[in-house]
Amino acid sequence: VHYILLFFSYFSFINAVLAVFNLVPLPPLDGSKILAALLSDRARYKFYQYQNMLSMIGMLLIVSGSLTGPLSVLENAVCELACGVAVPSGRRIVIVYEHGKNGNTFL
User: Fold this and answer.
1) Beta 97-100 vs 103-106: how paired, if at all?
2) What is the reported pTM?
3) Is the confidence at residue 101, as pLDDT, over 60?
4) Distance between CA 86 and CA 83 in Å, rounded?
5) Which residues of 38-53 are buried (b: 16+ CB within 10 A; e: fewer)?
6) Which residues lie closer than 8 Å to 95 by C-beta, 6 or more apart?
7) Radius of gyration from C-alpha coordinates of the chain
């Protein structure tokens, strides 16, 4: 049971990280399409005109780690929101793993 819950915990965390990363408004990510939809026609034209340059700058920022702080804040917020939806009463599921002399037990 512990390994199944651990799997789903990692699965939900990775899913939240990918969701937040995909919403970064840099081409070719989906966030750039959302941003372009919110811009005026003139600003959208400029945005698409500089799309290649913005993409390179964004990837450099991501690879250098400059966006790690802001992205981690958003990822944690999404994970907390997902936990609140999964457990509406606000209770947390806590599994205590204890390695005893007679084997492994879950409390």
Assistant:
1) antiparallel
2) 0.57
3) no
4) 5
5) eeeeeeeeebeeeeee
6) 1, 2, 5, 106, 107
7) 20
